[in-house]
Amino acid sequence: METAPKKTATKPATKPATKKVAKKTTKQAQVGFEESLWDAANKLRGSVESAEYKHIVLSLIFLKFISDKFEVRQKAIIAEYGDEYIDMVDFYAMDNVFYLPEDARWSYIQANAKQGDIAVKIDTALHGVEKNNKSLAGALPDNYFSRLGLDASKLSALIDTINNIDTIANQNEKTEEDLVGRVYEYFLGKFAASEGKGGGEFYTPKSIVTLIADMIEPFEGKIYDPCCGSGGMFVQSLKFINSHNGNQKNVSIYGQEYTNTTYKLAKMNLAVRGISGNLGDIAGDTFFKDQHPDLKADYIMANPPFNQKQWRADNELVDDARWAGYPTPPTGNANYAWIMHMISKLSEHGTAGFVLANGSMSSNTSGEGDIRQKIIENDLVDCMIALPGQLFYTTQIPVCLWFISKDKKGNNEKGLLKRRDRQGETLFIDAREMGTMVNRTLKELTNDDIAKITQTYHIWRGEELTTETAKPESADKEQSENKEQSANKEQEYEDVAGYCKSATLADIKANDYVLTPGRYVGAADIADDGIPFETKMSELSQTLYSQMNQADELDNAIRKNLQALGYGEERDGAKRNDS
Q1: Are 191 and 51 contacting, i.e. CB atoms less than 8 angstroms apart?
Q2: In this protein, which residues make up the domain named DNA methylase adenine-specific (predicted)?
Q3: What DSSP element (H or E) covers 444?
Q4: CA atoms within 13 A on the CB side of 559
Q5: What is the rounded CA–CA span in Å between residue 495 and residue 497?
Q6: Given its phi and psi angles, is residue 373 left (phi above 0), alpha (psi -120 to 50 degrees) or beta?
Q7: DSSP letter string, 334-396
Q8: In 3-state terms, what secondary structure has residue 473?
């Protein structure tokens, strides 16, 4: 993070602290907080189009987020060094925190929220933040609030709502919501139909991002996302590294985003976390304006737009180098163009994990089946996972995860982990029955679900931690990692009917090169309850006879009631009377 020079000083000796500043660790319940934000933003109706809501809210949340981090750091500086150092930029930069002038702090915005010129004050604050932090160049809106002509009282109400959000609670925990991206995705869903936007391409649900990161283990090297949306894949990659006591300096971030507003959002999302990334000079189409043409990435994590239509004209990109040796991806669906783009970007030992619509596993439309067959024959598919439905805010399209590996030999793979030779093998996992409903329409994978899937994959790969792994910071963590390593060593992979299957290339060929896990894992075994068939059949038969007798009794009772009302059954023109 770069900041304009202000006061600087040599770090003083730490003075005895008279008090400890503890970071808040109690996570505020945030399920449904998007709805509160929407209700507050919806009060702006009449003075701003609903499509602008997300930009208004996200800009304010961004300001709240960096201000909250600033205040936490400021209190820590006071406690550790004293009041005289609170305006020294270096003391904030060393902790990846933006230094904010007084009129750019959330407390100043909140204190002036009822003023008639609050829109101007917000624009001034955002301008001040960008001016003093070069890493945010071009990321923040310019005079945006003033130009919208917002009603001051309604804007004030929105500020009050955002003021109640704890933006930094549990920020170092793996389960922290990607706050900016989560709100963006929710707002996108509210007006996706009117804007004509496809669902799911701007923000990937946190549980899916966590699963991909845990599966491919991006410890070191170059991480790339060709359609990075709000940058959630990068954020989770670095959380994975930190949670496993790795070194964030051992990775470099590369990304690209087509939509200018989302490109800015990604820059904000990385900036607030002190992540330095290369997202290209401009927003641009990955197929036509590749910002990283010479990149060879060690890890690729992506959630491309689902079933993107008309992504190129018939005469465009026909002989593109990215699909050399393969049929050209069809114009009607970009799924295989994304796959081929990512394969072309992988390094010699690179690994990719990405989300696609389920149709990508079996489609034979316009030559897609031929491309998939070639990918399989080149032994690039390491693992396929079928996911449950309802994981996305804005689409119910069933999705799957692809894991591509350029090197299945195992012993030469990049990173801290040794793996077995997996040439000619592909792991299939059917996770469609996993996940928990978090509300009426949305499901998420639990931590246990993610752990089960990840462990299955890592045991199948024959994964074994080497002595190069960084020494854990605590005895508890070391003990935990030793237990996990021992467990993986003791366990050997086994196929589980209905859940996972290790298939050969011959198996896949016999299934017409279809990669749907359900074709391979089969049906789950039915547990034997130990009751002999004859005993069970006798009990079931007696139960059925009893129910049939009860049905006869009920039929007779109904007949009598109808007869009493004068509606007896007629036979041969005469009413039947059983009494």
Answers
A1: yes
A2: 176-528
A3: strand 443-444
A4: 13
A5: 6
A6: alpha
A7: -HHHHHHHHHHHEEEEEEEEEEEEGGGGT--GGGHHHHHHHHHHTT-EEEEEEPPS--SSS--
A8: coil
Are 409 and 421 within 8 A, CB to CB? Answer: yes
Token reading at 564: 């009493």
Residue 461 contacts by C-beta under 8 Å, 6 or more apart in sequence? 410, 419, 420, 422
381-386 β-sheet, strand order: 277-278, 251-255, 221-225, 297-302, 346-357, 399-405, 381-386, 425-430, 500-504
Q: What phi and psi values does residue 465 have, to the nearest 5 degrees?
A: -70, 135
425-430 and 381-386 as β-strands: parallel, antiparallel, unpaired?
parallel
Tell me whether residue 523 is exposed, middle or buried, using C-beta atoms within 10 angstroms of its C-beta: 0 to 12, 13 to 18, 19 or more.
Answer: exposed
**Contact (CB, 8 A) for 214 and 450:** yes
Which strand (E) or helix (H) includes residue 502?
strand 500-504
Separation between Cα atoms, residue 310 and residue 317, nearest integer Å: 13
CA dist., res. 441 & res. 182, Å (int):
16
Helix (H/G/I), strand (E/B), else coil: 189: helix
- Residue 364 neighbours by CB distance under 10 Å: 13
Amino acid occupying residue 279 = L
Asked if 30 and 45 touch (Cβ cutoff 8 Å), the reply is no
Amino acid at 300: I
Q: Which residues contact 450 (CB under 8 A, 6 or more apart)?
A: 207, 210, 211, 214
What DSSP letter does each residue of 170-221 carry, written as one string?
A: TTTSTT---HHHHHHHHHHHHHHHHHTPPSSSS---HHHHHHHHHHH---SE
Beta bridge partners of 464: 418
Instruction: Return d(Cα 324, Cα 142) in angstroms, integer.
Output: 43
579 residues of the chain, pLDDT tens digit each: 433 334 444 444 444 333 333 333 333 334 467 777 787 777 777 778 767 777 888 889 889 988 998 999 999 999 999 999 998 988 988 888 889 999 999 999 999 999 999 999 999 999 999 888 877 878 888 889 999 888 899 999 999 989 987 776 555 443 344 566 667 667 766 654 344 444 445 678 889 999 999 999 998 999 999 999 888 899 888 888 888 878 888 899 999 999 888 888 888 888 877 788 999 989 999 999 999 999 999 999 999 998 999 999 999 999 999 999 999 999 999 999 999 999 999 999 999 999 999 999 999 999 999 999 999 999 999 999 999 998 887 677 889 999 999 999 876 445 456 789 999 999 999 999 999 998 888 899 999 999 999 999 999 999 864 434 333 333 344 444 444 444 445 578 999 999 999 999 999 999 999 999 999 999 876 666 677 888 888 888 999 999 999 999 999 999 999 888 888 877 655 555 554
Do residues 225 and 269 make contact, with C-beta atoms less than 8 angstroms apart? Answer: no
